[in-house]
Amino acid sequence: MKQSELADLAAALLAGRGFAHKRDISDVLSSLSQALPGGTQALSQAVAIGDDCAAIPAGDSPEDGYLLFAIEGFLDDFVGALPWFAGYCGVMVNVSDICAMGGRPIAVVDALWSRGMEPAGEVMRGLAAASSRYGVPIVGGHSNNRSERGSLAVAILGRAKKLLTSFDARPGDKLMMAIDLRGAFEEPHPFWNASTTAPAERLRADIELLPLLAESGRCDAAKDISNAGAIGTALMLLECSKVGALIDVDNIPRPPGVPLLRWLQAFPSFGYVFSVRPEHEVAVAHHFESKGIACATVGDVTAAPQVWLRDGASKALLWDVAEQPFIGARAVEATCDA
């Protein structure tokens, strides 16, 4: 890829909807930090704000593990266009957040606003389908069938013996990605669905891969690929860890025939970014590839907090966190320390 093409790719990613939504996190974190006595550092949890889940010590010692708590809200246009799949995703993406932290899901609750049961009924059927397939029960929630506008949010509780976090990438690590390519787009949307047609037994086995990886000690830094796409998610992890990376865009696992830009803006049903010590690189790749999930080393973690895209001899700067925070997790931390 030519230098100009790589720069155009970086510009297209920055202009995308997924990047814009993640940039909004910075404003929310700043507002929360100002409103809380002592800032966000006063919150009682094991990792800083900005990770996939809140991690709350489950006892007095690390051996007691951690309770994991997360929530996902869904865009109104997504729920309106694909109500069953939106409901399904309510469970699926929350399960992914728990796994990204090295945990196992326990249960979910939902909050659903609608005008009557259309499309609320379809949303609930999607929630129930994912609950059954992943083996994660729906244990309660809140509903309002007399709302002027529809809205969906789903929260999840999980538990981890050992954490994967966004705050433990180190210079010299290998940046890796594992993505299930056995799926298809939910056209015309950017959602890569490798879940709804997969055997339920395989789905339940695959979500065990992340806690097993954490417990093996071969990895301690991870994040699930969200609507920011593979590179945007990597940027979030790197910012939290105060590091940067050179990312080889052509090394990112990608289905045959899918254009690069579309894939880099995709939201896969099973996709994770890892920062891995070099001595564990081969073992981590085998951990996923042995289960039919594509896994590759996609770059090198650097001490300088810039994220560069690379293709052969060409490089283009995507983001310089030293110049401008992305989600602002470290900016809030610095404000709290001041």
Question: How would you characterize the overall build of this protein?
Answer:
This protein is of the alpha+beta class and about 350 residues long. The protein has two domains: about 5-30 and about 165-335, Phosphoribosyl-aminoimidazole Synthetase, Chain A, domain 2; about 55-160, 60s Ribosomal Protein L30, Chain: A, CATH 3.30.1330. The protein is built from eleven helices and 15 strands. The protein has a seven-stranded mixed β-sheet with strand order 9-12-6-13-10-14-15. The protein has a five-stranded mixed β-sheet with strand order 1-2-5-3-4. Helix 2 (about 15-35) runs parallel beside helix 11 (about 330-335) and helix 4 (about 85-100) packs parallel to helix 5 (about 120-135). The longest helix is centred in the first third of the chain and has 19 residues, at about 15-35. The chain starts with a helix and ends with a helix. The relative contact order is 0.18. Mean pLDDT is about 90; it is low at about 330-338.
A few lines on this structure:
With 338 residues, the chain is an alpha+beta fold.
Question: What key attributes describe this structure?
Answer:
single chain, disordered C terminus, Phosphoribosyl-aminoimidazole Synthetase, Chain A, domain 2, five-stranded mixed beta sheet, 338 residues, 60s Ribosomal Protein L30, Chain: A, 11 helices, alpha+beta
